[in-house]
Amino acid sequence: MMTHVIKKPDWIRIRPPSGKKFLGIKKIIEDLKLNTVCSDARCPNMGECWSNGNATFMILGSICTRNCGFCGVEKGTEGESLSALEPGRIARAVEKMGLKYVVLTSVDRDDLPDSGSEHFANCINSIKSMDKEIIVEALIPDFRGDELCIRKIIAAHPDVVGHNIETVKELQAHVRDERAGYDLSLEVLKKIRQMSSSIHAKSSLMLGFGETEGMILKTMDDLRSAGVSILTLGQYLRPSVIQLEVKEYISPEKFEYYKRIACEKGFISVMSGPLVRSSYMAEKSLFSKD
Questions:
Q1: Element counts in the chain: helices (H) and strands (E)
Q2: With contact defined as beta carbons under 8 Å apart, do 161 and 199 qualify?
Q3: What does the alpha-carbon distance between residue 263 and residue 165 come to, in Å, rounded to a whole number?
Q4: Residue 282's closest CA among 230, 245, 237?
Q5: How far apart are the C-alpha atoms of 132 and 127, rounded to whole Å?
Q6: How far is it, in rounded angstroms, from Cα 212 to Cα 134?
Q7: Is 265 left (phi over 0), alpha (psi -120 to 50) or beta?
Q8: In this model, does residue 115 exceed pLDDT 90?
Q9: Per CATH, is 20-287 categorized as 3.20.20.70?
Q10: Hey, where are the domains in the chain?
Q11: Cα separations (Å) of 289 from 104, 223, 263, 276?
């Protein structure tokens, strides 16, 4: 059956990676055998972020045990063996890159008894042990809602803990793996705030799956009720023909509108735009509402 592919509008312009700083970051990551969500998830901002000396490290391997319809990361029923050296390599990369704000994220590891939470915490601890002044943002999977797994992350004292709800409630089954879910994600975010009042809770929404404005605003309300204070909104871009089609391209003006609404609803920081991703300019999102 023929499908209609919507043409990308002019405001979706992705600059190709280039520059000395970009190449330097690329070499550090390759030399230390690390994964980044920038390249594995085919992020459109990789050139900009790496050229500015920013990168989001993806830990727990490069194979995800979930099969979300939007994601371009490699899938499998089992991930790679965890390397005890990874936390130290992450810390060395942070030092070499001179980072003061670090984002750690991971694939889902449903094949591991603790979903990889202890390893995730070890990576946070490795950075904090090197320099406790470095701000660490942990963008975590749902850990199947396991409170002990979430508590391990909180005990490592990251400054921000993010968990992405990804889309509105009505489209969860269409967009995300069946093991994920809207209510599960809200519970994870609530637990983050219940376990620590000093940690900022963060979440992200992709737009363009066919959601309505009313659905988006309701999701904002639900996230605020769960204790989320930092929100990012971005356009869903199809990584390849295997993933879900884009139903709509949201204009920059509409993203600005949603940002104003989100700020009015009480989020302390909102990043909203066609090319915004959950860790895009993360260091700025923590300190600025404008």
A1: 11, 8
A2: yes
A3: 18
A4: 230
A5: 7
A6: 39
A7: alpha
A8: yes
A9: yes
A10: 20-287
A11: 22, 17, 8, 15
Give the separation between CA 178 and CA 204, rounded to whole angstroms.
19
What's the angle, vertex CA 37, arms to CA 14 and CA 196, rounded to 5? 120
Report the pLDDT value the prediction gives residue 108, as an integer from 0 to 100: 97
Q: What backbone phi and psi angles, to 5 degrees, belong to 85?
A: -85, -15
Where residue 18 falls among pLDDT bands split at 50, 70, 90? low
Q: In what side-by-side order are the strands of the sheet with 56-59?
A: 35-36, 56-59, 101-106, 135-139, 160-162, 200-207, 230-235, 269-273
Report the predicted TM-score, pTM, of the whole model to 2 decimal places. 0.89
H or E segment and range at residue 107: none
End-to-end CA distance of the chain: 45
Instruction: Please determine, for residue 46, whether its predicted confidence score (pLDDT) is greater than 60.
Output: no
Taking residues 89-102, report their average pLDDT: 89
Q: How many CB atoms lie within 10 A of CB 18?
A: 11
